Amino acid sequence: MIRELSTLKRTIGRTAGFFSIVFLIAFIAFLIVDIVLLSPPELVQSKLTTNPSLTLPIKPIEIPDQPDPSTDSAIVLGPDLEPGETGNNNQVQEKKFAEADKNKQVQKVAYLTFDDGPSDITPYVLDILREQQVPATFFVIASLAQNYPDYIRRAVADGHRIGNHTYSHKYRLIYSSPQAFIDDISHAEATLQTIIGYRPTLLRAPGGTVGNLSKTLASELRSMGFILHDWNVDSKDTMAALMPAEKIRENVVEQTKSKHVAVILFHDGPGKTTLPEALRSVITELKQEGYQFKTLDHLYQPIVAIDR
Ligand SMILES: [Zn+2]
To answer: How far apart are CA 263 and CA 299, in angstroms?
Structure first.
């Protein structure tokens, strides 16, 4: 009886030991998956290696057609578009532009947009934009903007627009509930307002609206005065920790070809050291293709992938 009991104890002890090890392995695997796979790719950091030749002499620039930054609510109608258009905004715009193009009435427009900054890369991006004399829109993470307020102010002074890209950019937090999203972007709004002096109304959801925002939340955000923007050209610069400049250029030029209205997605987050070089080639090529560059304030109807 005693022997049986001690055998039973040993068996229980071994079984418990075995399950503890299995549990430990499962827990470690979960941590690895959680940290590596579920982190947003744009936040993958790599060591910053700046290219000193990119630092350009500061020269004043004048970018035409900028709305009054004190309001940040003016939406300027695109060429040959009437207010009140409905339906799929992207298609409506393309159709309208294509019709107008037959009569050579319309200008192709590229909207350069940069998400996930500011970072050490941002001044280099600003230098290229200044060199090329083109305006852009920066969807900034407000918690990072606090670390680099001067980059944000310089972007505004250079004629660029600042948009809200949440405060935390933490997917699990911001997409845990509609209220969590609203709280986070409201926090971002208040933070950005202290830096730039006005309310930034342009809003881009991290990862885009598809699969992240419901139609109900999107319409609530609009009723709060936010203007949601996705994109229709993806530079795919987050497909790897560091995409070669040439690959970024190819991705953008290829997708932009067929479009009169190109809203182009880049990321000026930490470590994106190939971005400035890629940006210079993209701008040069799109200029040759006849594109004009504007900030998103000039877009008649925002490109938003979720149904309206
Ligand atoms: Zn983002």
So the answer is: 9
Find how far residue 130's CA is from the centre of its chain: 20
What residues pair up with 265 in beta bridges, in sequence order? 113, 234
The Cβ of residue 158 has, within 10 Å, a number of other Cβ atoms equal to 16
The structure tokens 């229709």 sit at 232
Distance 93 CA to ligand 1 centre (A): 26
* Residues, CB-to-ion distance under 5 Å, ligand 1: 115-116, 206
Predicted TM-score (pTM) of the model is: 0.72
pLDDT in tens, 59-81: 334 444 444 444 443 333 333 33
Q: Structural domains in the chain?
A: 41-298 (3.20.20.370)
Tens of pLDDT, residue by residue over 254-264, are: 999 989 999 99
Distance 178 CA to ligand 1 centre (A): 18
Spatial neighbors of 38 by CB under 8 A, at least 6 apart, are 171, 172
SS (H, E, C) the chain: CHHHHHHHHHHHHHHHHHHHHHHHHHHHHHHHHHHHHCCCHHHCCCCCCCCHHHCCCCCCCCCCCCCCCCCCCCCCCCCCCCCCCCCCHHHHHHHHHHHHHHCCCCCEEEEEEEECCCCCCHHHHHHHHHHHCCCCEEEECHHHHCCCHHHHHHHHHCCCEEEECCCCCCHHHHCCCHHHHHHHHHHHHHHHHHHHCCCCCEECCCCCCCCCCCHHHHHHHHHCCCEECCCCEECCCCCCCCCCHHHHHHHHHHHHCCCCEEEEEEECCCCCCCHHHHHHHHHHHHHHCCEEECCHHHCCCCCCCCCC
- Ligand 1 centroid to Cα of residue 284, in Å, is 26
